[in-house]
């Protein structure tokens, strides 16, 4: 029993010791992809900045993109990589939009708009140790031309 308690204290100490500053993740770009069925797909480019003095290894990425308080798209990838110490990396993540989100956007674009949105991005860079790094960010984005073309739906 004492050995288990000592191990938990040691793990808690290690987790607190290496936590550092949170990573910064922002939308760096969006490119259309070919959709399947009633969904639209796009490649979301995430700029990940590591403000710490140790490299950040990741083994998997998850993100969801919310607009106006509603989920617009979500995506996962089993990519592996490293964000260098005091450095950055752009990670491309395939994202899927539901039929409802597609319809809302098509209506706006049919009205001649190429909408700009305030967004909230949240997700996680899975780490090789103890859970990885969660992130959230907010900003404004504009959907790319051609995202909802006939060859994309």
Could you characterize the architecture of this molecule?
The chain has helices at about 1-15, 100-110; strands at about 25-35, 40-50, 55-65, 70-85, 85-95, 115-125, 135-140. The chain has about 150 residues and is α+β, with helices and mostly antiparallel strands. The protein has a 7-stranded antiparallel beta sheet. Mean pLDDT is about 80; it is low at about 1-15.
The proportion of residues forming helix, as a percent range, comes to 10-25%
Radius of gyration over all CA atoms, rounded: 19 Å
Largest sheet: 7 strands, antiparallel
Cα separation of the termini: 58 Å
Given the helix and strand composition, which structural class is it? alpha+beta
Number of helices: 2
Task: Please state the average pLDDT score.
Answer: 79
Shape: elongated
Strand order of the largest sheet: 1-2-5-4-3-6-7
User: Element order, helices and strands?
Assistant: HEEEEEHEE
Quick synopsis:
By secondary structure, the protein is an alpha+beta fold. Helix content is 18%, strand content 51%. The longest helix is centred in the first third of the chain and has 16 residues, at 2-17.
């Amino acid at each position: 029993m004492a050995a288990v308690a000592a191990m938990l204290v040691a793990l808690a100490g290690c987790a607190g010791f290496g936590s550092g500053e949170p990573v910064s993740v922002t939308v760096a770009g969006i490119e259309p992809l070919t959709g399947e069925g009633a969904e639209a797909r796009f490649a979301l480019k995430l700029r990940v900045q590591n403000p710490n003095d140790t490299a950040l290894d990741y083994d998997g990425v998850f993100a969801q993109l919310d607009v106006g308080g509603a989920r617009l798209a979500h995506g996962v990838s089993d990519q592996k990589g490293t964000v260098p110490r005091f450095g950055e990396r752009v990670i491309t993540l395939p994202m899927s939009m539901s039929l409802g989100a597609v319809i809302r956007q098509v209506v706006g674009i049919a009205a001649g708009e190429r909408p700009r949105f305030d967004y909230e991005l949240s997700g996680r860079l899975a780490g090789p140790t103890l859970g990885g790094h969660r992130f959230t960010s907010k900003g404004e984005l504009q959907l790319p031309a051609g995202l909802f073309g006939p060859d994309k739906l």
